[in-house]
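Morning run. Coffee first, then this:
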Amino acid sequence: MKPSKAIVTGAGGTVGSVLCNYLREQGVQVIPWNRKRVSTEIYEEMDRFIQEVQPDVLYHLALGSYHWTGEIAWITRQRGIRFIYTSTVMVFTNEAQGPFTPESQPDATEGYGGEKRRQEERIWHQNPEATVVRLGWQIGKKPGSNNMIQYLYEQMQTEGKVRASTEWLPACSFLEDTAAALWKISEMPSGLYHLNSNQQWNFCEITTALNRHHGYPWHIFPTHDFVYDQRMQDSRITLPPLEQRLPELSS
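And here it is:
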């Protein structure tokens, strides 16, 4: 059954804003979690908000505390609400060469990846019926927010060139494809999913193609100093391959 009402945390973020627009296009009523109005620390307030809204699904995309994530995982379990949490490929360190499958064991213990790994573990403890979706680097249409185009833009601004390794195969996908997949997953069995559109392309090839696609005056400087296969694989949920969205890769 397709959800008709969704709570979204991080609704104004890189993925959240695109997801909210996509859900509304599907006829879903979207209720953003406003942290100024609804506590992320007080259990009773969180429970009351979720009970009042009565969503079919709660998408947890926001950067937030371990406590907040654990509590809403528990509340959704108690109230029979689908809980979908977006994690990251960074739960795997640079020493853990991919491609990674849902069966691969994450090894990050520090930083952003370590925090996401701990939150994943907390979610499974609080709500065994939860869904965790690991994302790669998101590709937007222009600079702004935390997406690949913004990073490349900043590299050009600060260094006068974009350093791009030919030995790095990043996990990545276009934002619109990620949003569509998150919607599709809401109708699929709960569990752990990987979302990635990159099947074969290295970072230098991707940045060069983006440069040509957008007509940016970037100077792409190939390097060989970062060797890493970061790709994720999951046969249950496939995204359009990068070359479909970015035909300059194949030309």
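The chain has two domains: 5-137+172-195, 140-170+199-236. Good start to the day.
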